[in-house]
Fold this protein.
Amino acid sequence: MHPIVKLLSQRIALGLLLIIATSALIFAGTQILPGDVAQSILGQSATPEALANLREELGLNEPALSRYFDWLFGALQGDLGTALTNGKDIATSMASRLANTLFLAFWAAIIAVPLALILGLVAARYAGRWPDKLISGVTLATISLPEFVVGYIVMYILAVNYRLFPSTSVIYDSMSLLEKLNAIAMPVIVLVLVVLAHMMRMTRAAILNVMQSAYIETAELKGLRPATIISRHAFPNAIAPVVNVVMLNLAYLVVGVVVVEVVFVYPGMGQYLVDHVSKRDVPVVQACGLVFAAVYIGLNILADMIAILTNPRLRHPK
Amino acid sequence: MNDELKYLAGRAAQGRVSRRAFMGRAAALGISAGMAGNMLASAVSAQGAVKGGTLRIGSVGGESTNSLDPALAASQVPYHNLNTFGETLVEVKADGSIGYRLAESVESTSDAKTWMFKMRSGVEFHNGKTVTAEDAMRTMERHSNDDAQSGALGIMRGIESMKVEGDVFSVTLTTPNADLPYLLADYHLQIQPDGGFDDPAAGIGAGAYMLEANEPGARHLWKKNPNYWDDTRGHVDEVEILVINDATARMAALQSGQVHIVNRVDPKVAQLLGRSPGVQVVNVGGPGHYVFIMHCDTEPFANNHLRMALKLAINRQEMVDKILNGYGTVGNDFPINAAYPLFDETIPQREYDPAAAAEHYKMSGHDGSPIVLRVADGAFPGAVEAAQLYQQSAAAAGIPLEIKREPNDGYWSDVWNVQPFCASYWGGRPVQDQMYSTAYLSSADWNDTRFFNDKFDELLLSARAELDLSKRKGIYSEMAHIMRDEGGLICPMFNDYVDGLSDKVQGWEKDGTGELMGGRASQVCWLA
């Protein structure tokens, strides 16, 4: 077997193991929440008989370990159970929320990643001069503000003052793609502003790091233009650290946008999770936790794999 | 007023001159934009309701766990949904009288124990089924059922039996209650086909709007019910209720024209919001109130002189001005105000009187140790600030208060109704009897002032059976006096309902029965 295939399959196996370990943590975490699930569903007016019936129905009398395996095997087969609060199937109700979250993350990423890379390259090219300072200053300013403040500022300027975009981003199936894009314009802008700086700074740092290598000096002595040096010689060697940061930010776009979703009333996963946490809807919380963990771990494995594949030393071992 | 302008306003109202052109001409004639807007609004009202359009409401209080089952409604968005698609037997009108909806008339036996509701004929549910007295009875049965977990279960408990004779639905109570129609006007009690036993969350009722899209926690879209029986309501084609829990986002949605109506405008920003173009803030007094409560059976509050000293040591007007920013009215140490039917306006208003407070404090013989007042931000908006104001005004009367700040988490289980002196709030009830029965009757579950007064209990029960309104008013007035002078309730203020409206919304009236015109805005308003 080619060592790279071995390396990659090791990574994937490790990732799966990590997801299973996370599932155990999630399950344990929801078990040690104070209060009894049956009690929190029925509320104050619960009679002892009703409580006993519901515990039986939910299988709460069985040992935690067997409940964990039941849940895990169900989840592996795509059965996440039913929500306690409204009795709906979690997988189906979560699917549309997850699709919305991915939709928003996709468009934010499509803009943010190339923009961050380009800005990072420009900043590296003019390191220490005014374009570098301007780019760094602006992006660091937007990352330093809390997301909801950025959200409010964008909303005030674009929705209230100029009425360019709607201030709430509710989307639904009957909308056309263009209508949807119009609706999510503002959250996308906010998310781009929030994730830009991290990726941009990493690109800049990684390239500047590479620029001090001897082969770059050689390229300079050959008389290559600075832009060519960066794009042909420096950037390919800076991909690994950049990809890692890009993936972290992509994961953040999926799992960390609760505040933006609330501010712009976007029907995504974050809102869905928060609503169910406050209602103690444990199966939904577990399912959301599992999905978030899978997204996070999956993207990080992807980053690892790209880093491995782009590293010539690993591709062509001696 | 200028005749030319009046003529123009009329033309604009008919749509023959554009709104913009009208406002421009008005400005040219030296009329302020606000005044011109008002002129236009009154001209539009005179033309009668305009049909069509989509009315968008931005509301706090919606979650993805919300159901359309009327029994389960507990927050604002479900409340507005129910009022949009459902219809109750009767409603409480803005003036406090009973309005007839699915019931055409209501009668009772002279002892107020049995009540007969005659059903309106020819009304259909959204699914085409005719509304019958049977449906009304089944609805009440479902809400009486423990399994339904209905928010109206407490109301149903007083019912002994129900029956249907032709188109008359009758209810017999265990004890007389002259307020029964008010209780059955509760928003949970939307009449559903077969009482909603088959599918309570289907969103099928007899109201002006039918379900088009139901996305809990995000939006609810309702379209006009073509067979709706009442021509005076249901003017727009569609009602969209958007869940906007974030206050700033809600205000921005109104300012940017994305929604026409918002609820829960923060009093702190209400004036700023009202100044922005195309938007007005409307407030109306309601039954909700912010309170400080003392346990009448716990030292030192068991001493009525001390209670009186604490009541006299609070500056009510200052609270209304600073905590509510003027969007409210002063309270009078009993939980009733003009928003309730049969309210006695002649009861003297208690004023801030440090001298009298000091005198009562002295008479109470309190040892001068600080009296601990427990508050949390979650007790009511501005509760901590209110407690600080209270501390200052009490200090001026020589009464030392110590403010103990509690966490919001667990405030309602560990502090309220447990600790002897704390901050709290009440949303109010439609009638005095219900408010008093919920919290001030000796046997009440939520007797959070530990008020045990035999005379008061006796009066409350006698008022229930009294059908003569002037006599009942007299009894309630006597109860209010007892409460005010002996109770454990310090009620500094009644908070207004503060809503925000776009200038496109017409047909809005002052209605203190609830926020957004008692939930009726979606049915009675229209878009200019």
Remarks:
- Residues 296 and 364 of chain B are 14 Å apart (CA to CA).
- The two ends of chain B are 23 Å apart (CA to CA).
- The longest strand of chain B covers residues 279-294.
- The interface with chain A takes residues 58, 63-65, 67, 146, 149, 153, 201, 213, 215-219, 242-246, 248-249, 252-253, 255-259 of chain B (CB under 8 Å).
